[in-house]
Amino acid sequence: MPKWNGLKLVSLVAALATSGALTTASAQTTFDDVKQEVHALTEVIGDYTHDRRVALTEASRATLQSIDESILELNTKIRDDWGEMSDASKAKAEAAMENLHLRRLAVAERLGALEQSSSSSWSDIRSGFSVAFTDLQLAWEQAKQEFDTD
Question: In whole angstroms, what is the distance from residue 39 CA to residue 17 CA?
């Protein structure tokens, strides 16, 4: 396993563990299941008012848990295929995982701000969270389609 992969995986797992996002799944979630869950959440984020902040953050955490599990599965797939990958593919995989890592951390930061927001700052914070979540979703879907060929 390349050095970057282990270091980033450790920091990603640490971030996810501290956010409460890592749990053991009893059933394997498919990419399409998670994709539908993410799309549904991003569509309703704009409809949530400050009064429904708790419901939004709980739904967001549940969706992020599914994404986190999929990111870890994708990382395992890349690690397993590493020896058979070309140098160009390795570079693309490194860039894709770095992008996912950064976007996931951005969502965690925005989610924390969302949880702590006042009603006066709600709209701006909710909008920033929505943008960060959509960016993560797009990066995740792109990486999943490119590197998970099963």
Answer: 24
Residue written as token pair 């299941």: 33
25 located within any domain? no
CATH number for the domain including 62? Answer: 1.20.120
Residue numbers of the domain that contains 66: 3-20+30-147
CA nearest to 144, candidates 84, 82, 86, 99: 99
pLDDT in tens, 102-146: 999 999 999 888 888 877 787 788 888 888 888 988 898 888 888
* Number of domains the chain is built from: 1
What six digits make up the tokens of 130? 């929505």
CA 122 from chain center: how many Å?
Answer: 22
Closest CA to 97 of 65, 129, 137, 140: 140
Tokens of 119: 């009603």
Query: What is the number of helices (H) and of strands (E) in the chain?
Result: 5, 0
